[in-house]
Amino acid sequence: MRYEGEIPNTGDKVGLYFCECHSSQLCERFDFDDLETFAKEFPQIAVIRREPKMCGEGSINQLKNDIKEHSLDRILLATCAPDKHLEEFRTASVEMGINRYLVDAINIREQLAAIHANDPEGARIKARDQFAMAMANILKAKPANKVFAIVDETRCNGCEICYTVCDKGAISMVPDPYGRVQKISHPDPEKCWGCGVCVTSCPVNVMDMTVYSNEQLEGQVDSFLERLHPDRTNALVFACHWCAYQAADAAGAKGLPIDPDFRIIRSLCSGRIDPDWVLKAVSRGADGVLLMGGKPNQCHFKSGNMRTMSRMKLIKLLMDQMGLDGHRFRVEWVNPDEPEEYARAVNEFIKDLRELGPNPFKSLDTDYSHAQQRKK
Asked: Is residue 31 predicted with pLDDT exceeding 60?
């Protein structure tokens, strides 16, 4: 059955490139045939390539040829950790006229094959789900020249909250050209370092990011919810790129066994995660949400994790009011050099969710019930 409805055919032409990574025996531990079959159900996929090793010059040249021959406008790589070779493919794509932020990767080596060897079926199901989430992300991405905060000046009310939470001094308050209020927010793209704390702090939802946008991140949440599995635990993990996500890559490099019943969304900072996304997930059937960032005083963005800590305390209170056990939401601090701590935190969270049992809201939800038929 085709995977239709959640991601409409937007007219985009995506090139999908699998690295079978024979040097690491990835092809022996990952079901490429199943994921390729699933990928063909997406009408936006115009080219699918499977290479024994994507990081060679031949693969780069093949990518360039495909972009020209098939008029590709977005690229998705199914490879190893993004920090290893993603920039090489972004540079090659830019040379062929594709914006660098329309090129992204799904990590099938460290974060799928390497950590779920004990549950091949769980890994196969997770691979499909993570791919669907990656497609939601890449299709909602927009061209940009830098990661920075933006504001809708016509709706800003001049509250100055974004100004007070910015540790980089990247936001100034300038006279409102529309004459509605005295001053409005003005982010400086050159000074902004892309943490996104100001965006999630905005009380009137008029701020966004050029990359890791609200639409991209919430689109991944929606894709996760559309593919909930009634016979498995459904945990959603938000991991900051600089700390927890790198710990996840390190866990894969060490082959640490991790339960596959979670799906991961990468953001630049834990402070970028909107509490609304957490509440949306648990209110629509997710068994639990785990938010992972760097430890206090070690955040890449200085105090992004501290902003997260204060903001997320309210979530459990709101969950109690909704009639949900607050233990279905957890915040864990993990540094990039702590893969064992990452594996422990994820495994313990899933174990605790199983003890709590299925989310009682799952049986009440109807918005995503139609998607249950598309997961097999």
From this structure: yes
Closest CA to 26 of 115, 96, 86: 115
CB 198 within 8 A of CB 189: no
In the chain, the largest separation of any two C-alpha atoms, in whole Å, equals: 64
Instruction: For each of the domains in the chain, give its residue range(s) and CATH number, in order of start.
Output: 13-143 (3.40.50), 149-209 (3.30.70.20), 225-365 (3.40.50)
SS3 content of the chain, % helix, strand, coil (to 5): 45, 15, 40
Q: 49 Cβ partners below 8 Å, 6+ apart? A: 15, 16, 17, 18, 59, 62, 66
The alpha-helical segments, DSSP class H, found in 234-274 are: 244-253
Would you state the pLDDT for residue 25?
A: 66
**HSE-up (13 A, CA, CB side) for residue 74:** 23
Cα dihedral sign, 171-172-178-180: positive
The candidate with the shortest Cα–Cα distance to 374, out of 132, 135, 78, 138, is 132
Q: Note the pLDDT tens digit of each residue in 209-242.
A: 999 999 999 999 999 999 999 999 999 999 999 9
* pTM of the model as a whole: 0.91
Residues sharing a CB contact under 8 Å with residue 28, sequence separation 6 or more, in sequence order = none
Contacts of 176 (CB under 8 A, 6+ apart): 153, 156, 158, 182, 183, 184
Estimate the crossing angle of helix 120-140 against helix 214-226, to 10 degrees.
150
Banded model confidence at residue 370, pLDDT cuts 50, 70, 90: very low
Q: Which two tokens stand for residue 254?
A: 């060490």
- Cα distances (Å, whole numbers) of residue 343 to 104, 117, 187, 338: 25, 14, 37, 9
* Local confidence band at 309 (pLDDT 50, 70, 90 cut-offs): low
* pLDDT for residue 376 is more than 60: no
* 323-361 pLDDT per residue, tens: 889 899 999 999 999 999 999 999 999 999 999 999 998
Distance, in Å, from the CA atom of 252 to the CA atom of 240, rounded to the nearest integer, reads 16
Contact 92, 83 (CB under 8 A): no
Pick from 218, 234, 197: which is nearest to 372 by CA?
234
